[in-house]
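Worked example
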Amino acid sequence: MDSPNPLPAPVPTPEVTPQVYVQPASPLKKLLKISLILSGIIILILTIILTLNYFNILSLSSLFPKYFSFLPHQDLFFKNPLIGKAKSLGYTITYIDPKDTTGRTVFYEGKGIFGNNGIGEQITKNPDGSSYTSRIIGIFQELKDTPASPDKYLILVDLKTRKSYQPLRIILDPEKASTLSAKPTLPLTQLFVENLNILVNISTQNGELINEFYKLSNDEIKNILRNGDAVNMTLWPTYTSDKKALTNSKDESGKNIIWKLYIRRFGGKAQIEKELGRSI
């Protein structure tokens, strides 16, 4: 008996790789994606700024009240009762360190034409159109030594920009003083305190005199003038060579000279005496 014919071997079927077609993103979708990413970044930045402002860490509402007073912010009264005290006296504290208990870091507005309101440089114009810097209000940073003199350079920082002004000279040496100005004599720098308990008027605008700077010891100066304090200073003017206008007196290095330096306290001179532990 004949054997049956064997079945033919199966022919392998070639594998077919599926073709995947990736549709390129349209320009509109790319633009939408970029817009969403940028919107997210902007929202994040605004959230950080608003949070810092609300908790008065970086208070735009206080630093720039004219433009940002509408922003939500935590009432600093609950952090520092001196703000409420000033308000009851008729003026507004625009900045204060939350831990300040004496008013040494206070910047204010609303004390009238005799008050040392605001921050920054006060420029005074001469009749001929020229001008000079008559006053600066800022944050005290430190005192630095001057070469070959007991005088000091005061380093002042702008409250808004946190940038340093050019160093300002405090005159401590009576012998050196007379050689630094076109005037025959130059007063020694005097230290005053503004009493934040009162609204100033024409009789109280100059504050209360503490003393000439050179009569205070280094330890006493460090005690009543610290990094972060608000200071207001009047610069010493002198006549121009033609005697027709005023300009700033400068030392041999071209630095402006401080005539009167004002620190700030609630209680004024009485508070300074408490801090020094003696009468002045």
Summary: Residues 108-276 form one domain. The chain has two domains: 24-74, 108-276. The mean pLDDT is 82.
